[in-house]
Specification:
Elements (H helix, E strand, L loop, with lengths): L1 H8 L5 H17 L2 E2 L2 E2 L16 E2 H19 L4 H15 L7 E2 L4 E3 L1 E3 L4 E2 L3 E2 L7 H9 L17 E2 L2 E2 L9 E2 L7 E5 L8 E5 L1
Parallel strand pairs: 11-13
Antiparallel strand pairs: 1-2, 3-6, 4-5, 5-8, 6-7, 9-10, 12-13
Helix pairs in contact: 1-2, 2-4, 3-4, 3-5
Length: 202
Amino acid sequence: MLSVQAMQDLGLADEKTTLDRLEKTLSTIEALPKYRGHLYNWYDTRTLDLLGHPYISTVDSGNLVLSLIALKNALAGSSDPKAEELCKRVFVLIDRTDFSFLYNPKRRLLSIGYDPLENKQSENCYDLLLSEARSAYYFAIAKRQIPPECWASRRVTLWPVKRLTCIHARPAPTVTAVPPSSATVTAKSSSVLNTPEVRVEK
């Protein structure tokens, strides 16, 4: 969906074409079976039925929800009624995504995934600060679904460069929050060395 929006931004597609394509994709996502707002890993693209053993991937969900936030922000800049309607539908998908069941309180980390049939998390967790799971941590902390202290629970692989440590961990981020039902998530970081400031704004 972001690639479709990017086509319009680059002048490769007009707004009508962009909105029509986004509406079709969004309608398909809305029709897919979900678990607590999360898409499963595998679907039959012809019938939209689940394929194989159902599984929720923390990283895939984190990447998707932040992509939806970026799309929502892009749509919010349009005065087209269809864009406004799509923006509301995207927000519903964002707001229904719940990461709390993926949080392992003993390890203070997000599990790599969840098996809904067995009703249990995967044993392994994302414990690296600089990893593909950062999107999920950003969102879940900002939405107050997991405690912000878990940011400092992740370790950092250190590489000595001329006797200097090139990367090191920082304390947990500062979180400003409003009720999730009326929230838009934003996150920023000045560099990889700093803990990001994660905020939730109306």
